[in-house]
Amino acid sequence: CIGGPFTSLHIRYTDYTTDYQDRILELKTEISGLIFLATDNRKVLEFCQKHFGEDRVFNFATFPAVDGRPIHSDMKMDARTSNMDSICDVIMLAAAKTYYFFPLSTTQKTLAKYSGYSEFAQLLHKDEALFKQFFGLSSFDSVSRLKLRMSKLRRRIKRIILSLMPSKRRAY
What we know:
Blueprint: E1 6-11, H1 21-27, E2 34-39, H2 42-52, E3 57-58, H3 79-95, E4 98-101, H4 116-126, H5 128-134, H6 143-164
Helix pairs in contact: 3-4, 3-6, 4-5
């Protein structure tokens, strides 16, 4: 998908927020190479692209116009697309060479320090055996094989979505 070792970042900034700007500026000197960013906010993506470079920051999410509300709150967004984005994000976060995630803002009305999604990705990132078991990979499979599976899965989902569209609107 990205083409080489990469660092992953998970930044929440809709229903949950993080104080990510200062930390991103600090990470500019620590992170070299490609970056996968999982976020629920287009402005976070733009901020990271501005500071790390558009050619280094990858994101595969579909961003509906939801005015700062969580992506999943947009009733116009296809549930399949939203779910596939979430699955692809957690795979990419966990498969990275290095994974960074950010504490929730202290103004949040939650007892959790981090989002459950961030914690789940961290668990998969730290435990290669669990990662492989969760995604149905044998011990002989590699991350490159996982990327190939993700690519095939994306193509299959795209075909399904296109098949559900009225024939007049199909673009091939």
